[in-house]
Amino acid sequence: MVVELSTGIAGAYCTKLLADGGADVVKVEPPEGDPLRSWSASGAVVEAGADGALFSFLNGAKHSVVADPASEADVDLVNALLASADAVVWSSGSRVAEHFRPEEMQRRHPHLIVTSITSFGLDGPWRDRLATEFTLQAWSGGIVGLGRGVPDRAPVFVGGQVGEYLAGAYASAATLAFRHHQISSGGGQLIDLSMLETQILGLTYYPVTYFEMLGRPWRDARKLTVPGVAQAQDGLVDLGCGTAQQWFDLCAMVGHSEWIDEESPLSITEQANVHADEIYAWVRSHPVDDIRELATAFRIPNAPVANGANIASLEHFRERGSFVSNPRDGFLQPGHPYRMWPVQLRQPAPAPRLGEHSERYRSARPAPKAAPIGASTSLPLSGVRVLDMTTFWAGPCCTHFLAMLGAEVIHIESTRHPDGTRLIAGIPVTEDQWWEKSPIFAALNTNKKDLTLDLGSPRGREVLHRLIATCDVIAENFTPRVIDQMGLDFATIQSIRPDVVMLRMPGFGLDGPWRDNPAFAYVIESAAGISWLTGYPDLLPFEPYSVGDPNSGVHAVSALLLALEHRRRTGQGVLVEAAMVDAALSIAAEQLIEYTAYGAVLQRAGNRGPTAVPQNLYRTADVDEFGRLDSWVAIAVATDDQWHHLCTALGSPSWATDSALATAGGRRAHEDVIDDHLATWCARQSGEAIVATLWNAGVPVAKVMQPHRQPELAQLIARGFFEIIDHPVNGPVRLSSMPMRFSGGPYRFHTEPAPLLGQHNRELLTELGLSPDEIAELEAGGVIGQTPAIYSAI
After folding, report:
1. Which architecture characterizes domain 2-205 according to CATH?
2. Measuring CA to CA, which of 377, 427, 473, 704 is 20 to 30 A from 670?
């Protein structure tokens, strides 16, 4: 059983994922109910006694118990629930949650997994500072980190409250990891999750490691991604080039093979910008369907640009049954973010009315859990062996989470096809061991072992089969056709190890018309609707270009842990399908829900949003590190009280104290006026001064950080979010860690640096029973190796 003591999206989404996996979730609410019950992003009026559609989506199958913290009997009831529960998910924001602090719950109920979700964490100098999704994106570096926007305007945040969902997904994964541990040890844990840290991992691409290893930021200016989201003859289409080969193919597709220059000193992004006008002209002259058919034939990542109004009609989602009717209110909502066989996730069930189950738990309280005996010091996933056949970001992000919590993860590459992240750092191939110098690979693969195997050879496949027999989990994130061609479908894997859990992470799923399309983060974001809400209202949407991969990875962790629990109970193997696009549909759910429940199409609005008013970026007087007057602060006023505090901090000017602005509705009607005044005030001051003035006054505010400056934040320093580990080629490297801290450890997450190519060949093959002569034969035949074949041929 899981007790939910939270308000807002993050806690509700965490417990939704747990409920979908079969947990009994008891949502404890104050007498006035969770504020989400009356929420609508479009401003639709939720009638008294009814619930908002988003609440109904996030709270299906849960029970609702009302507890008044002023009532001793109600406090006793909640304590009885905690005593009988396996886990509690907590966030501040309600009177009842504030009465039960995370540290005290874990002290009083040592068997309990207490998952706390806060803006900055439970400790550190910022623990009590105010923040919103918007200001956290600014602090994380996620607003400017990937150059989102155009140079003559403010950068733009990622729309749609994705940070809330990311925090919920990470909270679910951590809770399930320690539930795996709790089952064997009986002991609880306090999981202290920081939403700032989840946004760093979800909205930036390891910028600190990149900057320290290569001496330059990932991007130092805002540039359009070309083509990106582009206007076609009859609608919007997203086309992307994530590799040099895809750029070459795009050149051929648009009829300009002469643009292909393999010796160009420019990156593919820079080359695309040179030819942007001609590329856009070509796209405008063709219909969306024709463009996508051509792009698919050329293996160029592509997708339609979805929004709440059109997403349910897209052929791929129709054929896969990606959307289902809400069982109580009838609107459409995404199905599960992952699927599995033979076990099935819980089917959608109605959300509870406020207090619907109060009397049930008052009259028959469940029995308390026994206190744990002793304390286990092992990591929660110790003993789990994972064969990691993933590459790039989404898959390695999942297996990295497992490795940092104790799983033995064996990363498979080949000398012909090393992990793609080894090849994207721009290190010249004339440089010694260039393939070991990728910051992204270094950041994503600590604690793993590395084995090279040529899976195109019979001998390589034979060795792979022997290795599979020793592993609990097989993980891969290729397009389905690749695994099919290798002959590694689930039936084959099960013939080798019947109780195996196979995690497949295709971009668009194992079936449907887009199943074999290449999938990078940006096309996933457009297909799911995330791009639609990101950007200025008068320009085409921008791809977030970030959240699609890590969001997929962390959802896959939850799916995998659910599958391992099913195997523990039944002995059955499980096939898990954790498609990138399904995870993205879940965190973009509000668009479809608002449209089918209220007829509202949510729109991008630059840096404004429905959760705070005013909410925007304002330029400061600071010159940035690149010599530009391009420094910004984020301000987000989420309540009328915060508006009063802002007015006081400004010196109570007459424009701000106008009674028409005292309510959110009044401020919404005068946003332009408010923005003009705040822009004038901010332009005269430094970012540091603005943050000090407003934060001390109780207003959510943030500097818009360059992402490689994350280690300068006092909160991250205090929580030890960055760890330094010595790499045999690159020397000491600073790496981001987990977005949470655990009361029982581990206290340090990176124990071994990312492995060298084929570093563990001999160790792992000897373990499988191969003799030194057999290993030497494999090396001589190119089945294994420690140097990329593309390098050996130069």
Report:
1. 3-Layer(aba) Sandwich (3.40)
2. 704
Quote the pLDDT of residue 212: 95
Exposed e or buried b per residue across 638-647, where buried means at least 16 C-beta atoms within 10 angstroms of its C-beta: beeebbbbbb
Instruction: Provide the edge-to-edge strand list for the sheet that holds 25-29.
Output: 63-66, 25-29, 2-5, 87-90, 113-118, 189-194, 740-742
Give the burial class of 487: count Cβ atoms within 10 A of its Cβ; 0-12 exposed, 13-18 middle, 19 or more buried: exposed
Buried b (16+ CB within 10 A) or exposed e, 23-57: bebbbbbbeebbebbbbbbbeeebeeeebbbbbbb
Residue 793 has pLDDT above 70, yes or no: no
The predicted-structure confidence for 450-470, as pLDDT tens digits, reads as follows: 999 999 999 999 999 999 999
Domain with CATH 3.40.50.10540 in the chain: 2-205, 385-575+742-792
Whether residue 608 contacts residue 615, with contact meaning beta carbons closer than 8 Å, is answered with yes
pLDDT confidence band for 241 (50 / 70 / 90): confident
Confidence label for 173 from pLDDT (cuts 50, 70 and 90)? very high
Q: What is the pLDDT of residue 370?
A: 78
Amino acid at 515: R
Write down how long the chain is. 794
What does the block give as tokens for 49?
């006694």
* Lookup: tokens for 91: 């966030």
Q: What is the pLDDT of residue 268?
A: 84
Strands of 488-585 (E only): list them: 501-504, 574-577
Distances, alpha carbon 177 to alpha carbons 2, 149, 153, 170, 369, in Å: 14, 38, 43, 11, 19
DSSP 301-352: -EEE---TTTGGG-HHHHHHT-EEE-TTT--EEE--SSEEESS-PPPP-PPP
What's the whole-number average pLDDT of the chain?
Answer: 95
Phi, psi of 461 (to 5 degrees): -70, -35
- What is d(CA 505, CA 503) in angstroms, rounded to the nearest whole number? 7
pLDDT tens for 481-491 read 888 888 899 99
Give the three-class secondary structure for 448. strand
Distance, CA of 455 to CA of 391 (rounded, Å)? 15
Q: Give the residues across from 301 on adjacent strands.
A: none
Q: Quick one: which of 573, 576, 546, 547 has its CA closest to 560?
A: 576
User: What is the CB neighbour count within 10 angstroms for residue 621?
Assistant: 14
| CA atoms within a 13 Å half-sphere pointing along the CA-CB vector of 409 | 29
- Residues 6 or more apart whose CB falls under 8 angstroms from that of 652 comprise none
Section 40-52 average pLDDT = 92
Q: Which CATH superfamily is domain 385-575+742-792 in?
A: Crotonobetainyl-coa:carnitine coa-transferase; domain 1 (3.40.50.10540)
b or e along 88-117 (b: 16 or more beta carbons within 10 Å of the residue's beta carbon)?
A: bbbbbebebbebbebeebbeebebbbbbbb
| Integer Cα distance of 397 and 312 in angstroms | 29
Instruction: Determine contact, residues 508/478, Cβ cutoff 8 Å.
Output: no
422/440 Cα distance (integer angstroms): 8
pLDDT per position as a tens digit, 743-763: 988 999 999 999 999 999 999
Furthest-apart CA pair in the chain: how many Å?
A: 86
How many other CB atoms sit within 10 Å of the CB of residue 670?
15
pTM, whole model, 2 decimals? Answer: 0.97
Look at residue 573 and give its three-state secondary structure.
coil
Q: Specify the CATH number of the domain 613-699.
A: 3.30.1540.10
Task: Tell me the two tokens of residue 68.
Answer: 């008044």
pLDDT of residue 575: 98
Beta strands in 454-573 (DSSP E): 473-476, 501-504
Contacts 24+ apart (CB under 8 A), 627-631: 631/687, 631/703, 631/704
- Cα–Cα distance for residue pair 596/274, rounded to 1 Å: 42
Whether the pLDDT of residue 689 is over 80: the answer is yes
**Start-to-end CA span in the chain (Å):** 60
